[in-house]
Amino acid sequence: VQEKADYHIHTELCHHASGAMEEYVREALEKGFDEIGFADHAPGAPEYDPDHRMTITQFPDYINDIHQLRDKFADIDIKIGIETDFYPGFEPFLENLLRSGSIDYVIGSVHFIQEESIFHWNRPVTSKNMEIQLIRQYFEEMRQGIRSGLVDVVGHMDLVKWIFPDAGKDIFDAGIEVLESISQEELILELNTSGLRNRPGEFYPCEDLLKITYELGIPVCLGSDAHEPQNVGANFPEAVELLNNIGYRQKQRWKGKIITYLPES
Ligand SMILES: [Zn+2]
Ligand SMILES: [Zn+2]
């Protein structure tokens, strides 16, 4: 089993990442990775957030580019992933993509609440009640996506803390229900290191949720969420240390797809 793998890497096709795909691969090789996966923002329904993703007509180019990189770089396994948004009605478009048969794994994530971007949130939240309701809505959308049967990995699961940094308890309580769904559906949870480099200042998910993840026996994979080449594999040593401290050890390729850490058996 490979030693180092980063499964959450973006490309310029999403309009908010920089650097050629080849630069991401070279960075991974330099950092000693033997496996990576591109997981750029998947095309969605025609009206759905076109500014932050490739178009459906660009999708075959994305696949072709990765195939060419595979041919060019023999020392590293390059997987074809995609990061889909969970939003009402996302399923038919994703099914269509999956029908091409070229995708190795799918990360599912929530980036919007009530059509407002979490990263660019500037809607007033006027009461604790409203805050709790928004948090619940975020996680409910995630649970619906998890139950779709179309994804393998749940991405940056407590991203909502970006908006509500002081709502740790409410996020934890609602997050546990999501972890139970992940366990039921036998999906993988992503330990996403980008939170460390951004406003939350900690991993997605937080350590307390990761401990529940462990107790539920959920496999975990690592993702940098790199939007520029230098961030491939960023903060992975700290992530592995955290996993080890919690009890994650053994590595296994989950359902033949990607490398995960499993609770010590
Ligand atoms: Zn992005
Ligand atoms: Zn994301």
Structural features, described:
There is one protein chain. Helices cover 33% and strands 20% of the residues. The chain has 7 helices and 11 strands. It has helices at 21-30, 59-72, 91-98, 128-146, 168-184, 207-215, 236-246, and strands spanning 5-9, 35-41, 77-85, 105-109, 112-113, 116-117, 153-154, 188-192, 220-223, 248-254, 258-263. Strands 1-2-3-4-7-8-9 form a 7-stranded parallel beta sheet. A two-stranded antiparallel sheet has the order 5-6. The protein has a two-stranded antiparallel ribbon with strand order 10-11. α4 (128-146) runs parallel beside α5 and α5 packs parallel to α6. Bound molecules: zinc ion (2 copies). The site of one zinc ion has 5 residues, from loops.
What is the strand and helix layout of this fold?
Elements: E1 5-9, H1 21-30, E2 35-41, H2 59-72, E3 77-85, H3 91-98, E4 105-109, E5 112-113, E6 116-117, H4 128-146, E7 153-154, H5 168-184, E8 188-192, H6 207-215, E9 220-223, H7 236-246, E10 248-254, E11 258-263
Parallel strand pairs: 1-2, 2-3, 3-4, 4-7, 7-8, 8-9
Antiparallel strand pairs: 5-6, 10-11
The protein binds zinc ion (2 copies).
Biggest β-sheet, characterized? 7 strands, parallel
Name the helix and strand elements from N-terminus to C-terminus, one letter apiece. Answer: EHEHEHEEEHEHEHEHEE
What structural class do the secondary elements suggest? alpha/beta
Radius of gyration, in Å, reads: 17 Å
The unreliable regions are: none
**Quick one: overall form?**
globular
- Across the major sheet, the strand order is 1-2-3-4-7-8-9
Oligomer: single chain
